[in-house]
Amino acid sequence: MHVISSHDAGILTLVATPIGNMGDISARAVQCLNEADLILCEDTRTSAKLLQAHGIKTRTRPLHDHNEQDRIPGLLEQLQQGRKIAVISDAGTPLMSDPGYRLVRAVIAGGGHVTAVPGANAAVMALTLSGLPPHPFMFSGFLPPRDAARRENLSVLRAAEQAGLSATLVWHEAPHRLAEMLASLAAVFSPDRPAAVARELTKRFEEVRRGPVGELAHYYQDHAARGEITVILGPPPADDTGPQDLDTHLREALKSLSLKDAASLVAGIVNLPRRTVYARALELTRDAQ
Q1: How far apart are CA 169 and CA 181, in angstroms?
Q2: CATH number of the domain that residue 203 is part of
Q3: Domain range spanning residue 116?
Q4: Is the pLDDT confidence value at 241 over 70?
Q5: How do residues 96-137 score in pLDDT, each as one tens digit?
Q6: Sign of the dihedral through C-alpha 114, 119, 120, 126
Q7: Number of other CB atoms surrounding residue 200 within 10 Å
Q8: Are 81 and 10 spatial neighbours (Cβ–Cβ below 8 Å)?
Q9: Residue 268 parent element (H or E)
Q10: pLDDT in tens, 203-233
């Protein structure tokens, strides 16, 4: 483990950048980027436009998923020497669906100083514009691109709802996968669940389309989406019987069946993956002991 001495140590600063409108960068962010010895960018070509627009001439280097782990020792060494390093993503707040987490963890583990300059965040902006309950909410980045993996991921969240979770759910999605993703939401949760699709936030063609997720799925099957997209799904309704149904079915099945057989039977009834139902059955049996 690299330990960064507090004496004359450098500082790692996570700097939020605009998510679309170039004017959405704070004076403090510009100052921080100007004063840094190095700016780590998700893509230096993308960031160059923003830096040039604000006259920022600080040296840049790429930091992405494929090189982050290898770059950490050298970056820790620079911080130990007192350098100021800034981290920016292509758009928005660093680490939110973007690289940087492993570097931050390494700096913290080494006793280094990490701070941030707050700013734009697409997930939070979409949530506030959605008309859906703003808290509690859960942001999960991007779903798996393949339908089977995506539905399994969503089924885990639905099972969590059936165990009592009630939160507004937020994801980012690529335009060419939007219709399929909305169809998956309608199938796993309910076509009637309130939802919103926010795209091109802060840009000229900003749009937030709201409605039942099933209707949104049909709309985007016929209308190809463009731009950066955030999808918001409202929490289950107050009369959702999911939690009671799952646990009731499991408790009844466990009276006469083994854990494995009970999970298999109930999984077919509630339309959830068997291993997800098995995990819940295991929790119920432990609680009963």
Answers
A1: 13
A2: 3.30.950.10
A3: 11-120
A4: no
A5: 888 899 999 999 999 999 999 999 999 999 999 999 999 999
A6: positive
A7: 17
A8: yes
A9: helix 259-270
A10: 999 999 999 999 999 999 999 999 999 999 9
Which residue in this structure is represented by tokens 């119920």?
284
Between helix 68-80 and helix 101-109 the angle, nearest 10°, is 40
Per the confidence metrics, is the pTM higher than 0.85? no
Do residues 116 and 71 share a domain? yes
If one counts the domains in the chain, the total is 3
Angle subtended at Cα 211 by Cα 216 and Cα 127, rounded to the nearest 5 degrees: 100
Which distant-in-sequence residues (6+ apart) come within 8 Å of 243 by Cβ? 161, 162, 163, 164
Residue 5 resides in a domain: no
Q: pLDDT by residue (tens digit) across 26-55?
A: 999 999 999 999 999 999 999 999 999 999
Predicted local distance difference test score (pLDDT) of residue 1: 47
In 25-141, where does DSSP find H-type helix? 27-35, 44-53, 68-80, 101-109, 122-129
| Strands annotated E in the chain | 11-15, 38-41, 60-62, 84-88, 113-117, 137-142, 168-173, 194-199, 207-212, 229-233
Secondary structure class of 177 (helix, strand, coil) = helix
Say if 6 falls within a structural domain: no
